[in-house]
## 1
Amino acid sequence: MPKNVIELKGVHKIYKMGENEIPALKDASIIIKQGEFVAIMGPSGSGKSTLMNILGLLDRPTYGKYLLNEERVDKKNDKQLARLRNQEIGFIFQVFNLLPRTSALNNVMMPFSYGKNGWSKRKRKKHAMKLLEEIGLKERIKHKPNELSGGERQRVAIARAIVNDPVLILADEPTGTLDSRTGQEIMEIFKKLNEQGRTILMVTHDENMAKYADRIIRLKDGKIIEN
């Protein structure tokens, strides 16, 4: 039976603004099993970004429990969270977040600075090149981001996200800046990664892209209204 990669139990997030308390997430409970492809949807202000930040260990819940890969993480210190982010989670963003002055290959190898320290430089390079080839960038590995199209940059970001073989891929509006055809190409890559057994959690506003997922979690006013 697949293990739980994500398990949220009664998670609340409250932001304080002066004397006021603003609830951004209310009693969220979620289980995502290994190998699932899940989309998170909801209108602006629904709590999607707050939920994503908590799941990505970029923020902490005010109340409730969060288990990542069956390990409780909501009580970890900042150093422990940084290590877990690098080793357990692969991030993919709408704006790619690539280093502008270095090649596609070096961008993909960047996470090796914090993980897989037992690998030789040659093995790291070979692994990164293999990932770039698998997503169709064999001829573009020496190109810098400004020499690549938006779709190609997102492919580099995907290769970078999986280079450390994380337990979870978090994608935040990964097709938001792409045209519909390129967006579908990126989603086909996600589908292939999922078929290989990778667990993917994606925030999107696009119903057509959400259809690639196995299921959809919908939020409204900080509450999960569909799971």
## 2
Amino acid sequence: ERGAGLPGVGQGGLYESLAVRGAAAPPRRAAVPVAPVLRDALGERWSRAPDDLVLLEAAIRAGVPESAARLVALLGNPEADEARRLGQLRILRETDVAGASAAALAHLSPAAPAAVVVAALDALDAHADPAEIEALVERYDALPAEAQGRARDLFFGRPGAALAFLRLVERGAVDAAAIPVGQLAPLALHRDAAIDAIVRARWGRVGPGTPEEKLATMRRLTNDLRAGPGDAARGKAVFARVCGGCHVLFGEGNRIGPELTGANRGDTTALLANVVDPSAVIRADWLAHTVVTRSGRVVTGLLAEQDAAAVTILDAQNRRVGIPRDEIESIEASAVSLMPERILEQLSPEELRDLFAWLQR
């Protein structure tokens, strides 16, 4: 009951060239509440098992009274096992619940498992206001090391929190070398002079390289590849670490970017060029979009789903981020690939040869 009307017509330009001029686009349907008879049926079923997470989520989504408050109460139980807390925090992230920020913040305890802390940060990303996220910057050091990367994503999507975090880097409270350069890309989208100045001072220019720089990189990497054979078995591990987060090869990996199994992997020059300059050619299916919310939050990724109620973005970490339409300021297609440049800079010549041996086996 949340139809979005007809979807847009791709990126190929066929509609623009052949459509009848003056034809009006169909109006977008508004989100329709769940029918009362269905809401009451779900509420009756949930009341018989109020702690069942499947029924609880259905009740919250249907607007059953007291269901959201029950979720917040369950999240207040510090003795719940990890799997149950993860399930509760996922529901909190994906639904509209009063008191969501406070419920999530309670799970950022240093004693909490790292996975629970990451899930709490996911919920805060969806619900916390900019001031709450900015205040969280001072707690960065107390977070588990496994959750700090997720916290940086949380900060970098908001200009105030991003600047506050970068001030820690500027003072030496956070080691700049511990932050992957590829994670800094969202900072440029804020177009903030103070943020840009700190990034340049600490990491240099992190934007797209010039054509001359990319050509020089191609020549250097080609020489490294020609220097000797690689080991495909070791290359499989390199692929999992560097590429598998976004690409599938031989049935393994994630589908954030194109599958590589059927690609032209035998052409070393073409393969290397696609990695060195990932934004040169972007297929319509993998076109990234940048969403800016009314609070200034910036989210970039693939447009995974959209309906009358919300837009769902699949980000570079394979996270699905739902954004209510009434919070969106703008949505724009990005000319820059989700795949960061300089991704091969972290590899030694031996690791590079091993990776290509696995890619081209």
## 3
Amino acid sequence: QFDAQVGRRRYLPSGREPRILMFSRNGLPFCCRPAVSMDATDSYRPVAFTADAVAALPRGGIDFMHDLWPLLRTEMKVAYYLTHVAMADGAASAERRRVDMVDAWRQGALDKLFNALAVHYGRFDPDAQVFVPEIAQAENSARYQQTVYRVLGQDVAESAKGEERSPLKFSLELFRVLRDNLRLAIDFGGLSAASATDFRRRIASLITRAVVGPPLRRGEEMLALIEAGVVRMPFGPSPRVSYDATIGRWRVASTQLQTPFACEVDAMVLGYLEQPGVDRSASPLLSRLHAAGRVRAGAGGSGVNVNRDGHPIAASGDVEPRLWVLGPLTEGTKYFNHYVPSPKSRFNAFREADRCARAILGSSGIVEKTISESRAASVIDG
């Protein structure tokens, strides 16, 4: 229930609740979606993390942390301070400040401008928000749980403000708003082999955490369950899990806490989805295509290796021109395909499906015939 006196939700225990112990590989709590979101995909104009800046990087040798993260980190600061300026002095003032930032970036003096803005609005550290190093630095179970609770509480407070009133949330939203620029660098082997592995294993999940979270209410409920003692997170990041068949119970043990913590649990509920793989697919069609050598795994063994037209690349290296693979199955070759498309900000899936349909139907003249008929109908209606 919502407690008006303290301004947050409370959980009233019945006494029959199970003891819930949670953990994850990176040890970080989820981030909530802003209570009110803006879709700035078409309107936000980046200063540093532009398509031209990304296109200038060496394809096949891009290092995310060395080449992309400095641009993204700078852009997050741009968004953070411009939101503060807009809140304080209005949109026109923010636009003037943006022009100043563009000039400063070209002259290599943007950090000086950030320092001046920090005097009024405080310093902003994108690394602390995305990588949350204090989580990994917790030395024992109690300190780790306190840190998780505090980080989640801060996120809930920022989410409640809405994206337009939270400079922090708006800066994090850039991972979604500028996702196409990320894809420009990552898709089809843009990253170096080492960086691609690091991106798949570590960075991609951090980006997803920042912008693909549950609604605000779920964060409020999680805080209430922690306060009521129903949910605990005692293990720290990436604990070791084993099953003891002699007693029929699971054992979970910390791996990164200086003071170890371990306990046994009755049941394990997995909340992790494996990346799609052609060598372990439950799909008879995909399994047969893989066995016949007509499709092969993408980067790191994930998904199906495809070219820019969506055609799978066979085990021989040849392109399969009469096959198309779209969506989540291309994860690995392409970045971030697990989403529900919407007309404005997540329309990449629509574009790919349209190209596929045009290629298939166009070969028989169906597309041209349909377009001609539509034009004729428009003339008649007019």
